[in-house]
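seq:
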Amino acid sequence: MLTWYDHALVELISVLESQGYVEGFDFLQDFFLDHNNDYESEMTYASSEDFAEENFDKFQGWIISQGKRIAASDTGRWCFHREVEDTGSVAPTNEILNESPKLSESDLELLNLPQYELNSGSYSGLRSLVSKMAAMKDSRIVTCALNLAKAAEYSGKNDSELVDLWASAAVYAEEYDDKERVVACLKNAAYHNVKISRFEDAAQQYQKAVDFAAAADDKRLLLRNARIQFQNVGDHDAASSVFINEMNIRLRTGSWFEKIAYWTYCLTSNYGESPKKVLANILIWLPIFTVLSFLLVVPGERDFWDGLWDGFYFTIVTFTTLGYGDITPKLWYGKLISGVIATFGLLYTSLFMVTIVRKYSRS
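struct:
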């Protein structure tokens, strides 16, 4: 038996005496958030969800075996047994285990508290209310979970707890398809992850929020934040992938001129992220320019293979802007193709160096 079992049982009995029942999974999550610092050696879990999932069956079996008249339903709700008249034996209180809970007037008042009244005094009540509304499958749980996270903020809870609360609120918002609130909750969870240097978790939350954001500007900002956090942990491949997604949004939503510019940038270098793509473009253009140089620049009386080799030589010299001058165009179309080759060479060699520096300076 773990040492926290007795402490949890005392709290469970107190909750059952006041509420009549509790959702076991939610109770364990709450217990972890409240006491993980007290039992650091036994509660080495990344989140309250992990803790509850790992310990639920074991703890449920233990509390039932303790003779405290605690029963459990198939769905994980816990309550007291009741005594059977005349025999003095006990039986599960199925009415409590299976009944549909209802919100009391005090619950509704708590649910509708204005933001300025959310504080440490309302925190514990909101936690219980979230568990109750989860059992009810009430869509208003989204509002309740958000209020709980805000109350925790105002109560000065630590960032690890706040991450769990905002992440849980995001789950509820996603369940009821409240996309705007999913984004808000994930952003808050990511913010607190950054504060405790969990940069990768923050990046993943920003990325997830992109799927629920409606406006293109919001998506780009979320992707930018994700990219920064990936860079903070040195995951530059992930940062590069996020940057490409960010630029793809610009490509889809820009003006026609911007679309042409971004499309060209993507085609030539994958938005400056791929030296291999720049090199592939160069290897495509060199044979084309070689043929054009052979046809339009190199004198026609030469042997075919010599002329083709001279065309390749002229292309390389012009593309790299060396310009030795031993082969020079005589006619206007030869001069035009020479200018095009030199321009392409200047742009591609510069772009190749930029992508190389960007890629390997990150590493």
